[in-house]
Here is the input.
Amino acid sequence: MKIELAENYGFCFGVKRAIKIAEENKNSSTYGPLIHNSKEIARLDADYKVGLVEDFKTFKPGDKAIVRTHGIVKEELAALHKSGIDVIDATCPFVTKPQEIAQEMSEAGYDVIIFGDEAHPEIKGVKSYATHGAIVVTNVFDLLELKLHEKIALIAQTTRKVEDYMEIANYLIPRHKEVRVFNTICNATFENQEAVRTISKKADVMIIIGGKNSSNTKQLSSISHDYCANSHHIEDENDLDYSWFKDKEFCGISAGASTPDWIIQNVIDSIKKSVN
Ligand code: SF4
Here is the structure.
């Protein structure tokens, strides 16, 4: 069986940057998981003494707090700054951008609509920047009952599928006087999604590696399923079921933006061993 990696996969610019920041700040703690990959977080803890704090109120003056890649809620960031904590911001610049847009558009009188997952830390953060509030939607049906004003600003979670975002925009544009659609889907997401689309069309089995709570990995898995019915989302080699590869000729591999190379390599090595 041939095993091939997608042309673009794995660590994105924002995650590489956040990990570098964490490695440069030993004996610190991230507020919430730095990235959506528990194995990499465990490595940072073991090798760099970068811990994990789930409640920002537990930071004490003098502590070093690293703001996670997905950003945090505006009020919590302000509270950290105020309480004498050394705040190191590892928010990805592609996440800072929609935060700024949310604030600017909200203050300019636009109804801010965010296409994304309300429970995701990135969206909680972006929403908190909309001074007069924002509405989070996951599909067109969520828009049907809304009473919106004439001016709408539309923002997407950075990891969303562009086709799904277009559906929301296409619904809103003919119904409102002014709809400002911001392309806040990040390039890394586009590239990884395009590459998984290409490879899954020719694969008879696809393996998508990444955290089960990683939004961009879930999107990759969804695209892969569109083109290859035998697509499997795994966190690491322990999730592999070797029967997936029986009588298969082409195994495509991709990985989410927070999946480190060493996990990808372990998966490839395990698949190779099983088919030989
Ligand atoms: S996927 Fe994009 S937005 Fe998210 S951390 Fe990576 S570069 Fe930043």
